[in-house]
Amino acid sequence: MKLIEIAAIGQNRELGKGNAMIWHLPADLKFFRQQTQGHAIVMGRKTFESLPKKLPGRHHIVISSTMPASEDVEVFESLDAFFDAYKHHDQTVYVIGGGMLYGELLPYCDELVLTHVEAADPQAEVFFPAFDLDDFVVEPIDEGVDGGLATRHVRYIRKK
User: How far apart are CA 98 and CA 128, in angstroms?
Assistant: First the structure.
């Protein structure tokens, strides 16, 4: 399994507040869809509940000890159970949140795909974990303006 964390983060690694994303970034939502389409996405229960609906074209995996099993969503009670089930899978799995899950899975991630938003929100409640740049090869993808804010998409590939 190849594990990739994908997120849009502010200047202070802000992710969200009130169980929602901080900024509305239409181009980044399209980028997210392009990156994750056809792949499995893993998330915590709160992130799953924050989705307006299941994201089409992606297999949904939720890590939660309290969420009941579902026909169309794979639920694991723990990270250990998830790893046991997926360790021999030859597929890419994207981690899409929340903050706690990003932190717990960061040591196991092969890549990070981050949208750096040139803004800060002092009201943020959830943050992306700090990581050591020396552990990664940095590959800029693109940059632009999205929702009135400067953004940069960057791929961080873990050094072997």
Answer: 9
Q: What is the CATH number of the domain that holds 61?
A: 3.40.430.10
CA angle 145, 147, 152 (to 5 degrees): 40
d(CA 58, CA 91): 12
Number of other CB atoms surrounding residue 140 within 10 Å: 10
Q: How far apart (Å, rounded) are the C-alpha atoms in residues 50 and 17?
A: 11
Full residue range of the structural domain in which residue 24 is found: 2-158
Task: Please provide residue 44's backbone torsions phi and psi, each rounded to the nearest 5 degrees.
Answer: -85, 170
pLDDT band at 69 (very low <50, low <70, confident <90, very high): confident
Say if pTM beats, i.e. exceeds, 0.85: yes
pLDDT tens profile 75-102: 999 999 999 999 899 999 999 999 999 9
142 by DSSP, 3-state: which? Answer: strand
Number of domains forming the structure of the chain? 1
Output the six-digit token pair for 131.
């990581």
DSSP letter (8 states) at residue 41: E
